Automatic annotation (TrEMBL):
GO molecular function, one term: potassium:chloride symporter activity
InterPro entries for the chain: Cat_transpt (IPR003445), TrkH (IPR004772)
Topological type in the membrane: Multi-pass membrane protein
Organism encoding this protein: Paraferrimonas sedimenticola
Subcellular compartments: Cell inner membrane
Keywords: Cell inner membrane, Cell membrane, Ion transport, Membrane, Metal-binding, Potassium, Potassium transport, Transmembrane, Transmembrane helix, Transport
Gene Ontology terms: cellular component: plasma membrane
Keyword field contains Protein biosynthesis: no
Record-given protein name: Trk system potassium uptake protein
Chief site of localization: membrane
One Pfam family of this chain: TrkH
Binding, K(+): 111-112, 220-221, 320-321, 437-438
Length: 485
């Protein structure tokens, strides 16, 4: 294993991440409501930690192997989540414990959106901005940004990209060079963030809220500056803007690249994509079911209000954003559980959404259909196709392996949470919310996670990282084969 080279890269990335402490310090200076000192101290401390890792190993430059790439990705998220907790530990407002600080930091960076903080309106603007910014950085994956500069450091980035990029097919690149791919992703990400912030501002948000909520929306994170989340604004226009940009962000970013990379928009790329068609169908069916149930049970006074709530909450939960206009946990009949289960599907591969990804669910469905056909015609040969492309058995095996590992991690976290004393509904929904990077759950975690035990928070923190790294990237480190030379 290339330990010194890995340590050098981690040190550089920590030093790079330390720059993220400066914008919140600037926000504190502008608004003058405190918090700036904690971020300046965190910047210096993070930079020193990065230099300690980098300086003794600065001459150890070599091409990364696949195993080193996996280890760097896992270490990077663990280390950065820990570094990200430093400002929260040093801040007087909010006054968080070690467990709460780490939970909030990892929740932000993994775009889970689960919070332990109550009274967001009383926090300094610097802290609020920092929470949004961490989600924005984590949404696309800070690794992808780092991949864009790794060639300048004498390190190839393909190994990191394969380990970080969500989805079952990881060898396709949008541009010939991996650095150019990472840059293209970030250009798209920046453009969508700017458009979302502008739309929020035009819909009635002030500039600070528009920028902060655009960060959390494009990252499909779900953090807000208010305890009532998007419901604070009580605006159908803002709800619609949020839903539209969540849908866009839950699409495969390579589709956005394909559609707008050539001269003029080529919207046919969206129509041809099998995964996107299934994703939109799922959204349409989910909204229809939720609206029909809310309307028939007279949960809202008017059909328009029911449709607004159904559209916003269905998109928010199913894309794993977790924004809210009200507590969906109080909705009638089966709706709360239906929405929680929808988060298991999540967004498309190559998006900022969580969950298992639509493409995997589609492939599981197609594989199930193939097995039913084989029962009727045992000697027939059936291939699984996405559009006109036949998929190899290797891809199908990988999807089944992922599903098995996902289910195993879910069961282990669920049982562990129940062992801490949480009731069945709370444990189930908290595990689903954190493993799917959703955020809000049911029961004791419907509003926030501040009241559960520290042990439960550490368990859920692990679930967040598993979900963000799509299970395999983390679990492979626990296999004896990985560590054999």
């Amino acid at each position: 294993m290339q330990y010194r080279n890995i340590t050098r890269i981690i040190g550089l990335l920590i030093a790079l991440f330390s720059i993220a402490m400066l914008p919140p310090a600037l926000v504190a200076l502008i608004y003058g409501d405190g918090g700036g000192t904690a971020f300046l101290r965190s910047f210096v401390l993070s930079l020193l930690i990065g230099m300690v890792f980098w300086y003794p190993n600065r001459h150890h430059k070599e091409e990364l192997r696949n195993r080193s790439g996996f280890l760097i990705v896992v270490l990077f998220w663990v280390v950065l989540g820990s570094i990200g907790a430093i400002p929260l530990l040093l801040s007087a407002n909010p006054d968080l414990s070690v467990a709460d600080s780490f939970f909030e930091s990892f929740s932000a960076l993994t775009t889970t959106g689960a919070t332990v903080i109550v009274g967001l309106e009383q926090l300094p603007k610097a802290i609020l901005f920092y929470r949004h910014m961490l989600q924005w950085l984590g949404g696309m994956g800070i690794i992808v940004l780092a991949v864009a500069i790794l060639p300048l450091l004498g390190v190839g980035g393909m190994q990191l990209y394969r380990a970080e990029t969500p989805g079952p097919v990881k060898d396709s690149k949008m541009t010939p060079r991996i650095a150019e791919t990472a840059k293209a992703l970030w250009y798209i990400y920046l453009a969508l963030t700017g458009l979302c912030a502008s739309a929020y501002w035009l819909a009635g948000m002030n500039l600070f809220d528009a920028i902060g909520h655009s960060f959390s929306t494009i990252a499909i994170g779900g953090f807000s500056s208010y305890d009532a989340s998007i419901g604070h604004f009580d605006s159908s226009a803002i709800n619609l803007v949020c839903a539209i940009f969540l849908l866009i962000s839950a699409m495969n970013f390579s589709l956005h690249f394909t559609a707008f990379s050539s001269r003029g928009a080529n919207l046919k790329a969206y129509l041809k994509d099998t995964e996107l068609r299934f994703f939109l169908l799922i959204q349409l069916v989910l909204v229809a079911i939720v609206f029909a149930t809310l309307y028939n049970t007279a949960t809202f006074d008017t059909p328009e209000a029911a449709l607004d709530a159904a559209l916003f909450q269905s998109v928010s939960i199913s894309t794993t954003a977790g924004f809210g206009t009200e507590s969906f946990a109080s909705w009638p009949l089966f709706l709360p559980m239906l929405l929680i289960f929808s988060s298991f599907i999540g967004g498309c591969a190559g998006s900022t959404g969580g969950g298992m990804k639509v493409i995997r669910v589609v492939l599981l469905f197609l594989q199930g259909s193939r097995e039913l056909k084989r029962l009727v015609h045992p000697k027939a040969i059936y291939s699984i196709r996405l559009g006109s492309k036949a998929l190899s058995n290797r891809v199908i095996d990988a999807v089944w392996g992922f599903f098995s590992a996902y289910a195993l991690v879910f069961v282990i976290c669920l049982v562990a949470l129940m062992a801490t004393g949480l009731d069945d509904i709370t444990a189930f929904s908290a595990t689903a919310a954190c493993l799917n990077n959703l955020g809000p759950g049911l029961g004791e975690v419907a509003a926030h996670y501040g009241d559960i035990s520290d042990t439960a928070k550490w368990i859920l923190l692990v679930a967040m990282v598993c979900g963000r790294l799509e299970v395999f990237t983390l679990l492979v480190l626990f296999t004896p084969t990985f560590w054999k030379s």
